[in-house]
């Protein structure tokens, strides 16, 4: 019998989950506070709108905003007394605490968090491959049954994600550093650009684009995430503020007098510490993050053709973030799908066309 999954919240994440699971043969039903979101998710192939005639789901995935996640989880545990319920909110301890406080059946609740997303919200931004090759954290609480944890892992893996199991607090401390602080940093850096004259903005290079991509994120969502994980985020922000202040003082000292003993050491250490931290980020794995743009080049099935393509990409000074090769059926060509940062995709298309490649979006 096909596993029945009910998705509550048909935004970016819920719709993407529905699309991925439907493609894998799960029977997915959809609900949302907004009927338009449900209709859109259905049109995108995420599943069928839930109706009173449906059989009870085996698993409910709550993909509603963080500030309502716990209450929706409680409602779903009550509505479906034998279903396993998970939520995908970006913080886990607060949701678990709130579900526990409501007196719900914790044996059937297992929080989780896909470490994949986009800086855009809503069903329109959903992608069936959003979780492909990404990590999905599963956080069973002390009362969760092993069966419930296994069901949630099965759902996460069916979307193409790799699961890791962690306690809620351990998860929250980790995401405070790897997700929540980066969001604050990106937003604050991008905010510096707001009043910059156009002539200065014209100088924006790849560095500022890399650092600020997620500054496009939804303020409502992130206010809820930072409030919901405040206990773990605050100490990370304190350490960041202390480091920033040290660099600020050193640079101010250098501005006041060129000798400024010790100041260069402080600056160099900050940059070197950044190198050490950056070197620890695990490499890319799985398919290209959906945030990349793809440029498709037709590659003749001839020795050295691919090498020439890579050479041309490299000569343009463009970093290839990922690559997929499709082999043409019935033709002596292959299709090289080049994933690059969206900001350089148009230039890559122009450069490759100019060099004689047949290029497609
Ligand atoms: N955006 C991202 O990149 C990621 C988000 N998450 C988590 O996923 C959850 C959903 O986020 P997104 O999909 O980005 O948000 P979204 O804003 O795209 O979608 C949220 C959906 O929930 C619906 N909704 C609101 N209140 C509801 C309620 N009481 N009952 C049912 N539906 C309700 C909204 O109408 C909307 O369609 C959040 O908890 C977020 O923390 C997790 C990983 C990544
Ligand atoms: O856009 C990106 O790169 C992200 O990392 C998105 C994201 C946003 C919120 C999460 O809780 C998890 C992932």
TrEMBL record:
ACT domain span: 294-361
- Please list the GO terms describing molecular function: NAD+ binding; prephenate dehydrogenase (NAD+) activity; prephenate dehydrogenase (NADP+) activity
What is catalyzed by this enzyme?
A: prephenate + NAD(+) = 3-(4-hydroxyphenyl)pyruvate + CO2 + NADH
UniProt keywords (A-Z) are: Amino-acid biosynthesis, Aromatic amino acid biosynthesis, NAD, Oxidoreductase, Tyrosine biosynthesis
The cross-references to PROSITE patterns, in alphabetical order and at most eight, read: ACT, PDH_ADH
Q: What is its EC number?
A: 1.3.1.12
Q: What is this protein called in UniProt?
A: Prephenate dehydrogenase
């Amino acid at each position: 019998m096909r596993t029945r999954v009910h998705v509550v919240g048909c935004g970016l994440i819920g719709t993407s989950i529905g699309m991925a699971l439907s493609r894998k043969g799960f029977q997915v039903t959809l609900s949302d506070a907004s009927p338009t979101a449900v209709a859109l998710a259905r049109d995108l192939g995420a599943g069928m709108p839930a109706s009173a005639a449906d059989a009870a789901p085996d698993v409910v995935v709550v993909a509603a905003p963080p500030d309502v996640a716990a209450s929706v989880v409680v409602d779903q545990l009550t509505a479906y007394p034998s279903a396993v319920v998970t939520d995908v909110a970006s913080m886990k301890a607060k949701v678990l605490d709130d579900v526990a406080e409501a007196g719900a059946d914790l044996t059937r609740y297992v929080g989780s968090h896909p470490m994949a997303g986009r800086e855009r919200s809503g069903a329109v931004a959903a992608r069936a491959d959003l979780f492909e090759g990404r990590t999905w954290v599963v956080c069973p609480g002390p009362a969760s049954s092993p069966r419930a944890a296994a069901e949630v892992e099965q759902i996460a893996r069916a979307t193409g994600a790799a699961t890791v199991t962690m306690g809620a607090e351990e998860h929250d401390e980790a995401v405070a550093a790897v997700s929540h602080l980066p969001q604050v940093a990106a937003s604050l850096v991008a905010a510096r650009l707001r009043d910059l004259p156009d002539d200065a903005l014209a100088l924006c290079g790849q560095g500022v684009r890399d650092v600020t991509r997620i500054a496009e994120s939804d303020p409502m969502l992130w206010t809820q995430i930072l409030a919901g994980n405040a206990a773990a985020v605050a100490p990370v922000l304190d350490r960041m503020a202390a480091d920033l202040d040290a660099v600020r003082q050193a640079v101010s000292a250098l501005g006041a007098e060129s000798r400024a003993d010790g100041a260069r050491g402080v600056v160099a250490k900050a940059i070197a510490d950044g190198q050490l931290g950056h070197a620890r980020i695990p490499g890319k794995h799985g398919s290209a993050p959906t945030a990349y743009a793809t440029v498709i080049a037709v590659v003749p099935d001839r020795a050295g053709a691919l090498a020439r393509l890579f050479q041309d990409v490299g000569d343009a000074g463009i970093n290839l973030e990922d690559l997929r090769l499709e082999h043409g059926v019935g033709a002596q060509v292959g299709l090289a799908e080049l994933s690059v940062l969206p900001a350089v995709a148009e230039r890559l298309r122009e450069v490759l066309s100019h060099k004689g490649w047949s290029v497609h979006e």
